[in-house]
Amino acid sequence: MILSLDIRGLGVIDEAHLDFGPGLTVLTGETGAGKTMVLTSLQMLLGRRADPAWVRQGARQAEVDGVFHADTALESRVDDIGGIVEDNEVIISRVIAAHGRSRAHLGGRAVPASMLSEVTSTLVTIHGQADQMALRSPAAQRQTLDDCGDDEHRARIDAYQYAWMSAVQAKKRLDAARDSGDERTARILLLEELTNRIAELDPQAGEDELLRAEAERLTNVEELRRHLGYAHAVLSGGEADGGVLDLIRAAVKELDEATRLDPALAAIADRLRPVAFDVEAHIDDLSAYLVQLNDDPARLAYIHERRAALRALMHGRASDVDELIVWQEKALSELAELTAAATDPQILADELAAAQQQVLTAGEALRHSRLRLADWLSEAVNKELHALSMPDAHFSIHLEPTKPMPHGMEDVQMLLQPHPSAPARPLGQGASGGELSRVMLAIEVALGTHSGSATYIFDEVDAGIGGRTASAVGQRLAQLAHNQQVVVVTHLPQVAAYATTHLLVEKNDGLTTVRPLDAQARVDEIARMMGAERDSEAAREHAAELLRKSV
């Protein structure tokens, strides 16, 4: 349920605060006052794409904050992302920058706007005149029928869709096996040759770099021996002259002698003494390296040959040996798939036949479930239509069998017969705007006790009706509000009279404000909605009477 809404810098709204109560809330106001922007702000909180053009001229950004009652599912989702839920309430926010990207927050945590749509989809249902037009389409009618279903019906939809996708995948595998023929055989031969060559060569991770370094060393043995020999002589000394090691040892000896004269020099001697040990260790390392540094033409030739073989296999497949090993693993996997029994056309044809039979079985179960729902919904909608000043109307749902399709094995068609002398026609072929409004409302009232949505929002779905019909619509909206929160944008006084909370959207000097109406102010607003002059006492009395009758 929506508890409150704060809007800043959105379109014609500079700043507005709205409190929504349980039951039926109506928003009224002159045309152009800004009712649309109030709905737009709600849609933003529900994840609708934001448009920087909505930012009020002169403002840096538009902000919308909504406080929602958090059910168990929403509270769990907010907890998962580290958001805050206090007293079963969660704040959802959207910010639209005039120049830049919009931002969304759920329980104080930044989230993608798409997450808002996901988490609020079961909380709020919005219907507008566009939804009336959508109700003309077979897809929307099928979805409306399926929305009536319980968990068992939804499980049958899932089972059918799974069977359908399985059959589609089985058909793709069979087509690929039949169409690839010679290409498949050629691919198998190529992969077998390459994977065998790679397996025979048995490359090791990082081997190419190790071989490069070894080839570099063997190619430059003489130059290495010259450089290392000189370094060894500098450190260890030659036949005539001492090296660095002898000089360090001599320095340590002199420091030891000097320490007898000044003990403070002992610290210097102690720091220099390990240096001699380090130099001696370096001399040993150089000696060991020089001992094994020999020409090996045979080894160098082998290395060149192996590097050439590796490069040949890597060409067009990998940039180094590590990537070649990965390519080999993928190639072996592909080869296993191409040579598996599951790629045999006959086996795949049998699998497809079994999958198609499963589609028929699941489709038949779904059809029977939809037939039961169609009977129930038709009866419930007819009851509501009769209460909505269409006493002779007859609503029915026809399921036309079709070949298997992604959505099932039938097309759903909703028919309306306005009166006994008129033919029953599809909603998309002849139903007026007023009739569509009442059909939609009848469906929503019928579904109200079955719906998971806590809040319904209707945007002028009462367009095209008036008089006693308008009063009937107000009654049905009030009935729906017994179980759900209902928010209605309306221009009909007969509907507004049934509100438990009445919000007036008005514009003054180019700025839109929203304020709740007390009893006296409601009389004034309903009188205005009736088209009366502001000072018409007769209209005010009529408005007061309308309010009394709606209680």
Explain the overall architecture.
- A hairpin with a 5-residue loop joins strand 5 and strand 6.
- The protein has a 6-stranded antiparallel β-sheet with strand order 2-1-4-5-6-7. The protein has a 6-stranded mixed β-sheet with strand order 8-12-13-3-14-15. The chain has a 3-stranded antiparallel β-sheet with strand order 9-10-11.
- The protein starts with a strand and ends with a helix.
- It is elongated and about 130 Å long.
- It has helices spanning 35-45, 72-80, 113-120, 129-134, 138-147, 151-201, 207-219, 221-236, 244-259, 266-292, 297-314, 321-339, 345-387, 433-448, 467-480, 493-496, 519-529, 537-550; strands spanning 2-10, 13-19, 24-28, 61-69, 89-97, 103-106, 109-111, 124-128, 394-405, 408-417, 425-426, 455-459, 485-489, 501-508, 511-516.
- With 551 residues, it is an alpha/beta fold.
Summed up, what is this model?
The chain is of the alpha/beta class and 551 residues long. The protein is built from 18 helices and 15 strands.
Key attributes of the depicted protein:
alpha/beta; six-stranded mixed sheet; 18 helices; 15 strands; 56% helix; elongated
Mean pLDDT: 87
Strand order of the largest sheet: 2-1-4-5-6-7
Question: Strand-residue fraction?
Answer: 15-25%
The poorly predicted ranges are none
Number of helices in the DSSP assignment: 18
Structural class: alpha/beta
What global shape is seen?
A: elongated
**Helix content, binned percent:** 55-70%
The CA-CA distance between the termini, in Å, is: 23 Å
Total count of strands:
15
Instruction: Please compute the radius of gyration using only Cα atoms.
Output: 41 Å
Largest sheet report: 6 strands, antiparallel
